[in-house]
Amino acid sequence: QQQVKQSPQSLIVQKGGISIINCAYENTAFDYFPWYQQFPGKGPALLIAIRPDVSEKKEGRFTISFNKSAKQFSLHIMDSQPGDSATYFCAAGSDRGSTLGRLYFGRGTQLTVWP
Amino acid sequence: NAGVTQTPKFQVLKTGQSMTLQCAQDMNHEYMSWYRQDPGMGLRLIHYSVGAGITDQGEVPNGYNVSRSTTEDFPLRLLSAAPSQTSVYFCASSYSFTSGQETQYFGPGTRLLVL
Q1: How confident is the model at residue A84 (pLDDT cuts 50, 70, 90)?
Q2: Using CB atoms, which residue from A44, A51, A102 is nearest to B48?
Q3: What is the C-alpha separation between B89 and B67, in angstroms, rounded?
Q4: Fewer CB atoms inside 10 A, N or C side of chain B?
């Protein structure tokens, strides 16, 4: 059973537009929700992360929106740039219980930003 | 700091051969993980460790062994390579899973082809 479901699988956005990627999770024990960015031939790197005590976190052009009751969270990229073209992964984890030490990843979204 | 290092970068194996993928980190991180990345499947956890001498299985452990004799090293062993193990393998580490210390740092990956 997939613990974290991510959509869309691919996304094409024009330069300056807003990119939105959505994720949903099942396990209510999760309390850490990061987004990772991966460029071709490289390992993933942390982009931004949120804990469920807040509903939104913003860092520059990147914003996470979190809906605890719906068990959903999303990444918004404002003013998308060609340099944002990459694969984005959402993930979920917890610092306690049976999920301690594990991050569950979505299947990824390949974002292409056209100039 | 070198961060997370992985060797080799590329490897070609014949079915039935065994090999060890090396992973090392110099950040004194307690948590280390191995993932495999396949097209359309995201990052799937193979094995992970929450400290020296402690390892546990992830989502896809079959055909792989790990050990953690030191904090720095977390090798992944393929016992008898199969074509289904053709993938890109990433090692990752984090200080802990508590708030503010949970960022996972990924290595550059090992690309494995099993013929």
Answers
A1: very high
A2: A102
A3: 16
A4: N
Residue B84 phi, psi dihedral angles, 5° rounding: -65, -15
A43/B108 Cβ within 8 A: yes
Q: Does B106 contact A101 at a Cβ distance shorter than 8 Å?
A: no
Best CA proximity match to A76, nearest among A49, A58, A92, A52: A58
pLDDT at position B20 is 98
Number of other residues whose CB lies within 10 A of the CB of residue B53: 11
Strand partners, B65: B77
Structure-token pair, residue B88? 């890109």
- Which DSSP category does A100 fall into? B
Q: What is the pLDDT of residues B100-114, one digit of tens each?
A: 667 889 999 999 999
Question: Are B14 and B115 in contact, with CB atoms under 8 Å apart?
Answer: yes
**Are B42 and A101 a contacting pair at CB < 8 A?**
no
Instruction: Give the mutation candidate from B9, B35, B38, B43 for the A interface (greatest A CB count, under 10 A).
Output: B43
Residue B29 to residue B25: CA distance in whole angstroms: 7
Residue from the list A36, A95, A107 with its beta carbon closest to the beta carbon of B41: A107
Contact B22, B112 (CB under 8 A): no
